[in-house]
Specification:
The chain is mostly beta strands. The chain is built from no helices and 10 strands. The two termini are about 20 Å apart.
Length: about 130
Amino acid sequence: MMLSLSVLMFDVSAFAESTQTTVTRLDDEISLEKTILSMNIPETNTLPWGTIKGKVNDPSQGYPVIIQIFKSDEDVPIHVAQVSLKGDNSFEYKFRLLSIDEGNITHFFEGDYNVKIFKVINTPRDDLESV
């Protein structure tokens, strides 16, 4: 089960890299897939938006993707989002990195973060015999 996931900050110096994906069976029909990423927003970022996007393989229909962003050294999320899947089973979430108001710049995100992405998928049928 592959998940194509990227975090684009519209700035080549910002990045995310996949660190861990786990699947937890909820019942015979659905499972919860959790991906944890490390994300870095540089102090020198000057662009206002970041994007988290990806694609869910074999999603269970009717369930949104949940995105939680944590400061890397904290256990409580500082930002949470819920996004619906598009028709091609992809998702995209834009979030504000900084704001400029009357010349004053406010950085909402800066430094190292952990991003947790939760997706409900159809329970893998790896153990079924071929007919």
